[in-house]
Design goal:
The structure is a homodimer of 407-residue chains. In chain A, β1 and β2 form a beta hairpin. The first copy, chain A, has an 8-stranded mixed sheet with strand order 13-14-16-15-17-18-19-20, with helices on both faces. Chain A folds into 2 domains: 112 residues, Immunoglobulins (Immunoglobulin-like); 245 residues, Rossmann fold, CATH 3.40.50.1820. The termini of chain A are far apart. Helices cover 28% and strands 27% of the residues of chain A. The radius of gyration of chain A is 24 Å and the shape is globular. In chain A, 50% of the residues are buried. The first copy, chain A, contains 12 helices and 20 strands. The longest helix of chain A has 14 residues. Chain A is of the alpha+beta class. Chains A and B meet through α2, α3, β5, β9 and β10 of A and α2, α3, β5, β9 and β10 of B. β13 of chain A pairs antiparallel with β13 of chain B, so a sheet runs across the interface.
Amino acid sequence: MIKYLNLKLNKMKAFISMFLGLIIGCGVFAQQSLWGGQQIVSPEVNDGQSVTFRFHAPDADTVMITGDFLPTEKLNTQWGEFDVPGKALMTKDEKGTWTFSSEALESNLYSYSFIVDGLYTTDPNNVYKIRDVASVFDIFIVGGGMGDLYTVQDVPHGTVSRRWYDSPGNEMQRRITIYTPPGYEHSKMKYPVLYLLHGMGGDEEAWIALGRTSQILDNLIAQGKARPMIVVMPNGNVAQQAAPGESPKGLYKPTMQLPNTMDGKFEETFIDVIGFIESNYRVEAKKEYRAIAGLSMGGFHSLHISRYYPNTFGYIGLFSAAILPNQNVKSKVYDNIDETLMTQRENGYNLYWIGMGKSDFLYQSGVEYRAKLDSLNFDYTYIETEGGHTWSNWRVYLTQFVQMLFR
Amino acid sequence: MIKYLNLKLNKMKAFISMFLGLIIGCGVFAQQSLWGGQQIVSPEVNDGQSVTFRFHAPDADTVMITGDFLPTEKLNTQWGEFDVPGKALMTKDEKGTWTFSSEALESNLYSYSFIVDGLYTTDPNNVYKIRDVASVFDIFIVGGGMGDLYTVQDVPHGTVSRRWYDSPGNEMQRRITIYTPPGYEHSKMKYPVLYLLHGMGGDEEAWIALGRTSQILDNLIAQGKARPMIVVMPNGNVAQQAAPGESPKGLYKPTMQLPNTMDGKFEETFIDVIGFIESNYRVEAKKEYRAIAGLSMGGFHSLHISRYYPNTFGYIGLFSAAILPNQNVKSKVYDNIDETLMTQRENGYNLYWIGMGKSDFLYQSGVEYRAKLDSLNFDYTYIETEGGHTWSNWRVYLTQFVQMLFR
């Protein structure tokens, strides 16, 4: 940037003063890069799919990187042993810039943070950050495989809208994210709908941000691998109107646990979501053109909504699902589970799809639920993958699931 | 959070294992708060409108805070003297948490960063971050005045859509952000349109993120102070299809300076934006129902677009505008400026509004441009505010401008 400024200084004074002034207007980081530091690119995806991270911290004693591309470590807690992202030490050069280069990585979307003298920090040279509940991570994508599906490609693009709908069942206006496929606005055709539900701590932003839903749909539709469909991403926490920061509650600190979660109310009032979509969009309002899927708590919601409205959904997807309700929770939604499953079986459906990671902490619940389905002669498709309760798996499950819909 | 877990451990095992697993799935910051640290709220807006910031860093030697709520400092450079956000030292307590409490602040939206032993870092306890070009800042809002307009209130909400449109003049598909007011989807009425343009280094996300456009419009419409209108926020950089990360260029590091900026091409091809809006939305396609406004480079664009299409816009807003083109740039858009301004004057318009901050580095350009308008007997409204080339001013200008539109 400085080189550019010097080169053009005489010719383009007006431009430069504006340019500079804007940099200053931008504030501290920009100043830092102009006057205090150096131009750093981080992360940089290299040929051969290794990735180099850089962080300028001349006075730091130790800089580490942690991320989901590093081998996991075991963490022992009183509740059991869990896999957590591993760490790696970065190397300092003579100018005070710390560097780490990964091994060649499989094509995917990854997240990471730096740990500077024990403190977790974001990468100041990476603007691509995603919030997950109350944490903000830096992300990057390695292309050449699955990662290409998560990247904006030179294909027709759908529209992503944030709207508000009225939920009489919850007595509130609620925020919702809706993907309409390329061509929707200029077509007269009616479209199928996938209702796509987030997990605990998530909201109507989760699937579009962490899930890369619009990129996956744009790309699979362009490749002819998914049918053009509307994807509806509601907020599954009935205690809140909208994602943190998007409601009259203001800019509060998000929490994982909310009141009235998994108590039947979201399932019971899901008719408000369907009603809104079917009266506001050109949709095929028929069972064989309605799909519902979700991750973790959203898989739980999908299971119970598809039972509670037993002849409504032709396609059901349970991604790493929390399967059965807590027995202390009383709701008519959770009554007669076996009977309603049998009714659902009798009514018929096109696909009942279950995806689970081998190291998922909900793995055993999945085993028990599938045993129940077997005992009821309830047909389903089961896919088991490596890994656990991660967005990396949920993106893969979405990719697989949408290709099977509405065929 | 830990207290909650212990209380419920026996009763709600299934819930807890899921809850915990999700926390772990969230990764490093969440782990840190569960096992390594403490629950910290930062920032916290206190009664009396002071704000307290907290940062846990037991091993740090010095933690400072910098932000646009602190008294500015002077920065001398070879290009002149600039106001930059000031800094303040934070105070460490016995547990290693650094704290700073501001004075009572006027109601507004503010941004800040921490400086830990010389390194700029984001606040790990604040998920509300906004990107400005290549920098990411933490933000907060102090209510009770202007800040209330920037906050989601319990009022009807418009819809915000990210779409793509075809720009034949640029031979590309381009991304665009569109706000439609509450009730648009259920009305048959035709709406007026404000075209709202960003500055250098910005893109189609700038006004909706930093500018709080949807909150300002929702709130002013609910108060009856602004007419329901569509707000169209295109990308003013003809060299790019979309904001960083939203195009096939992938997740690259944004830069302030792009090729083909302010060279007439955006103005010349603006007809593609108007054509898209007027053929896709229920709009009053008449001069007295079209407004165009922009900040800095976007003010420059608004000036020249409204001249180049002289009988198209009834309302023109120049916010801290870069006024006249560089003389080395050749474009038919920049020919005959005085003549086309006179034509614009003869054709008539409802409002030509200019807002400028007293310490804006473009202040003198504004003086010269207004002298030109005076010499042409070209009517305009001029507002001068404190401060300089800042989003704080641009949000105020938007708030003032939209209240005068389409009356």
